[in-house]
Each structure stands twice: as C-alpha cells, then as structure tokens.
C-alpha cells in the first residue's frame, strides 16, 4: 500500500458517492462523468487494498470499512479547506468586494452561477454587479474606476487586458406559424420575412452588419427594437423574424423556431481589466474562478 498515490479527487469521489448513493448523481455533483467517478473509486480501492462500496442495481452503499475510511476522507478534506482558509487570510481574501460591470445578457444568464461558486469559496467577499444594455458603458465603468472587472465583447482597446471566456452564436428566431422555405436557411429566405433588429449603434447589430458587409449581403429591418425581451415577444406574436445572439434571446419561448444563420456568426465574450491598474487579491480570485469555469465549459445560460 502506497498512500502517496491516494488522490484528493478519489476522496472527493468517495464522499460524493456516499452522499448521493450512486455514481451518476455523484458525477453530476462533481461535474465529471459517471465513469470518472467509478474509475476514481476503483483506483482508491486498489491503493488501499479494500472494498469500500457495494455495487448493485439500486446504487452503491458503503461497506463497513468504507464507512470508517469515509470518516478519514471527511477529515482530510476538512483539513484541506482549513488550509485554504489560512492561505486566503494571508492573501487578504477575508473581506472587501469585487465590482463587476457587465452587459445585461451575461449578467442575467451567466454570472449568477459564477458568483455562486465564488461566494461558496470566499463567503466574506462581497460582490457589486452593475449591468448595462451594451459594452460601451461597461468599458467606461472600468476607465472611471467604478468597476474592477468588465464583461464585454472582444476585441477591446489596448488600455485593457482581456481574454475570451465564451462564444455566443447569433440565432435566427422564427415565429411558430411561419413556414421555413429551405433547410438550411438561405439569405434569400431571410429577405422574404419581416425582419426585427436592434437599433443602429447597438453593438450586437453592428457586429451583424459587419458580417453582412463582409459577405456582400444586405438586409433591411422592418422593425428596430432596443430591448431583447421585446424582440422575442414580437417574434412569438408572429410580427417577424429576429436575428439575435442566443444569450440575449434567453429564455426562448416554446414554439419559436431556432435556426443558424446561412453563414454562422458568433460574438466573442471576454473579461477585461485595466492594463495598468493594481488589483486586489479578491479580484484575482474572482478572475481565477471565472477562468476555471470557462475552461470547464460551465459558462452557459442558467
């Protein structure tokens, strides 16, 4: 038995299976696959040389030795948590606040899950979230020192350090009673429908217009509407077809038809901080949480 080969991920898997009673729900709790949990438990049993769980069609239950090992697993993970708290205390993560500026669709559908994870890790740090209709105000908040972190569209100017966190596809939203002429849609199809777009100057519309120009295409809107929710409501009432990023359209009502553009388009959503600003440990901790969830593909619409 070589205890140096025992991994924390294996102990977390044991705790999760003991709490959930089966490998599938344990995997959901840990954000890994069921097979990953099964492999972790099997590896832990091999290292210890004992059977920790009794498997059956109704789930998994701890063996007597598994119950005793579980107590130690809890103690080890609890000690690790205390170790982290001591380190956070030394780094100044036991107070203060992180100020975030974001455009509305990300603030509504993405950031709440990030904030929940961050607050679980750093409950003493407050969050101030300002949401805006577009990116211009977000970046101005950063310049004026009213925000530490901005969620904006990329690329940004050189005054910011920025990096991508997710991509958001533009969708064609079609009323329930409209007949789609071709699959997939063509630009000629789109020109036959009444079109609903955001007004001139809106960052989402500007990106779409640049896309059209690069393709040598043009579309004239029948309606220009600022609020995303109003656009979706008008589509649901059969007033026209809308072209809108997925996050801006969420939640999309049942019955509305969703299609990709004939030439797909995504907006690149990123996080930005002032390049020359000094940031607190709390800000870097939030950026680390955001980066980690982005890499795991966990930044999706809530």
TrEMBL record:
Keywords, in A-Z order: DNA-binding, Transcription, Transcription regulation
State a single Gene Ontology molecular function: DNA-binding transcription factor activity
Q: Which GO cellular component term is one of those annotated?
A: cytosol
Q: Where is the HTH lysR-type domain?
A: 6-63
Coiled coil located at which positions? none
Looking at the keywords, is Transcription regulation present?
Answer: yes
Q: Which family does it belong to?
A: Belongs to the LysR transcriptional regulatory family.
Q: Which protein is depicted?
A: LysR family transcriptional regulator
The organism of origin for this protein: Thermocoleostomius sinensis A174
Taxonomic lineage of this organism? Answer: Bacteria, Bacillati, Cyanobacteriota, Cyanophyceae, Oculatellales
